[in-house]
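User: Please predict the structure of the protein below. I'd like the answer in structure-token form so I can feed it into my own downstream comparison script.

Assistant: Understood. Taking the following sequence of 185 residues as input:
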Amino acid sequence: MSVNRVVPLVFLAVALATVLMLPALHAGCGEADTPAPPAEVEKPPPGDIPGLSADQSRAVAEYGYPDHFFISVDPYSSDRVERWTYFRLGQALDFDNGRLFGKEPVDDQSSQYPPTRLHPQDFDNTMTPAEATSLLGEPLFTHETSDSLMPENTILVYETAVLLFRGEKLMGVDTQVKPPALPAP
């Protein structure tokens, strides 16, 4: 056998002996087994906001909450498309299921549409009309669309938002609404 073949075999034998002997040596040290450290709880990365995606959380961290937002939920797939409008920045951000996919310039219409106090994460895909009323107060106007192209839909107009439901399922939210001019009592 050549020296070139003996050296790797010796290395292999020493490595194997070390691996096999290490547990026996450790067990014989007379020390009690140390308990395994507790499993770490997975925490969301700093800055993530519950109910928002990472892209949306970054947008809030960088720009603040949007002045207005529009949410559309596909009733069959539950895909969610959102447009966040920042009048003060002159731009809108578009999200598809939480992923930022576009930016677009917008005109400043803040004098016509004061910023909303609502946040996109206030409107979960599972929100019901009753939950919407709990959040927004009594609707100013309700319209059932029974004789239209969109049967079974209900439009609820609140002072700060317009919501669209199909049955008990949220399909759309728009916060870019003008405060209603109601007659004095």
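That's the full token string. The helical segments are 3-27, 54-63, 129-136.
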